[in-house]
Amino acid sequence: MIMRDLLLEIGTEEIPARFMPAALEQLQERAARLLAEYRLDYARIKTMGTPRRLVLQIDNLAAEQKSLREKKKGPSREAAFDEQGNPTQAARGFAAKLGVPLESLEIEVVGKGEYLVAVKEIQGEPTLRVLSTLLPGLIKSLAFPKTMYWEASKVRFARPIRWLLCLYGEDTVSFSYAGLDSGQQTWGHRFLAPGPFAVQNPDHYYTVLAENKVLLDPAARAAEIRKQAEQAAASAGVELYLDPALLEEVTYLVESPCAVLCSFPESFLQLPRDVLVTTMQSHQRYFPTRDESGAIRPYFVAISNNSSAPEENIRSGNEKVLKARLADADFFYAEDLKAPLSDYVEALKSVLFQEELGTVYEKTNRMMVLVDFLSQRLPAVKPETTRAAQRAAFLSKADLVTHMVGEFPELQGIMGQEYARISGESPEVARAIMEHYRPRFAGDELPQTLPGALVSIADKLDHLAGCFAIGIRPSGSQDPYALRRQGLGLLQVILEHDIRVSIREMMGFALELFRERLQDLDVEERVLELTDFTWHRARYYFQEKGFDYDLVEAVLHSSDDRIPDLERRLDFLQQKRADQHLADAATAYIRIANLANQTASREEVRESLLREPAEKDLYEKYRAAVEQLAVDLTENNLESVLSSLSGLKKEVDFFFDEVLVMVKEEELRSNRLALLAQLQNLYLNLADLSRIVFPS
Hints:
Blueprint: E1 3-12, H1 20-37, E2 44-50, E3 53-62, E4 68-76, H2 77-80, H3 89-98, E5 106-110, E6 113-122, H4 127-141, E7 161-168, E8 171-172, E9 176-177, E10 180-181, E11 185-186, E12 197-198, H5 202-211, H6 218-234, E13 239-240, H7 244-251, E14 258-263, H8 273-283, E15 287-290, E16 296-304, H9 311-336, E17 352-354, E18 358-359, H10 360-376, H11 383-395, H12 403-407, H13 414-422, H14 427-435, H15 450-469, H16 483-496, H17 503-512, H18 523-544, H19 549-556, H20 563-575, H21 580-596, H22 613-634, H23 638-646, H24 649-658, H25 666-684
Antiparallel strand pairs: 1-3, 1-7, 2-3, 4-6, 5-6, 7-8, 9-10, 11-12, 13-15, 14-16, 15-16, 17-18
């Protein structure tokens, strides 16, 4: 079969850099899905792009679809033929409906009956014809954080589409989209070689772009930016301070990168390092430089998209912009230092946290109470640690009302640490102020100090409890209050610092702090919702860490809701999955739970009603296990816990062989069910073993 390469270029106005990686990933994934749906074979799919173009190449795309052999079931044999074996109207109608000759129908056994079956061969269509339908749908399927429309059909895209190039080998794939017809023309670099330029085939396309100042491959463009920037920095005797996220962003800002070394006045080096880096990276997309010790130096590298412009003009223009930004930062810094950080706390009374939940000042007071609550439940926490955490909670949001954070919101916490240090706060307090925002995003660092962890947990607990208290929930892909991120961050910090406090107790206490403000708050109902929400995040987190889904379900349905203990159980059960003791414990538990789940009663067992030797033996073994488990669980001796639970199997089997639980005498029946319920609770200290999938 003849195979040729397909090339699709969607030419646009400049697409925001942050949209590009996801757009190219979507383009590849959805192209693969559509090719499979349309039965088109190919060797490889590759996507590339610049701010002005999204490009899809499919290597060795088949010249036509694969044929499809469809089998359709019709009426039963009895309905399809009369007593003489002649086709009935049902058989003739079935053949006519599918457009096949009556004599081509076959009889096949389907299930327990015989049915008329039609086999229809659908011939594949030429690829050129299929692509004319497939490609407009592919373009339409691309999703962006924000879209716009610009022409009569009101097609939406990240930015206006200006041209469509589509070639299958040397043939144009004809289709229309967004008021444009596809063709064989592309455009070069907007300033250096605008075009248009005719393209003969996919191979020629790359030659045309290279000749006209477009470096199409993002990986090659990133490598070129890095090389040029490092060379520019080296020319001044400094090192490039390279942030991978900034490199990716700049890669999608240019089509023909040109690095220019620039400088700023050394007087600005008095500003905190993070202020300098943030001003250069986040606001201007410049690469800072540093010396061998890591100190920021008064040079930076700007990446231009127009190498034809005089280098001195590029340099002076960027230097003027940065100097103005740093002058603003210098002014804000000097103004903020006129008062200690604690003086800014009062201003938080005028900063709204959420309309129904009050001000940020009220939030900090709740955080201080939560820190005290957590400290009391962690016996190893020293009084000085608690004091540092409470002070940090009090000051944690003060930098929000400073000039610097007002101008550079991404420095919240960072400036709080800096101002706390200068104000004479202890190093522990200053660091905790910065750490309490962590983790800010996936893969971010976690708080490393205990005061930082306590304030971080308090902040996240208050955020989650407040939102759930007033009915704010994540919905589908919508999560404007970042509750999923807060929930996952809460779990990560708890695990990092082994905070063995009940999730339900934490949530309940955090919700109680809103009771005075929210008179109708149903704390118990909200605790159930928050715990369920937290368990959803825990499922995701534990499965991402590689734990088996059935073991995750088993521990999340245990009676323990202390996150570090759940992870220990998961790790233990994962190691013991093939152990006979685990299988024995699960077998015993399932027999117990089958009956125990039939009663809501959780009464105490009355020894005077234990009549049969088997139930007396089981009760004595249960009491001994309760005492042993209390010690083992405190010491996290899970090996001994499993041994105790599996050791009950003999008595459990004997009990079910010798004792009828559901007897007519209500008192006796209730007592036996109570015994099973107590046993079930004993097993749930480890996990709900009925949820573990054992190989058959």
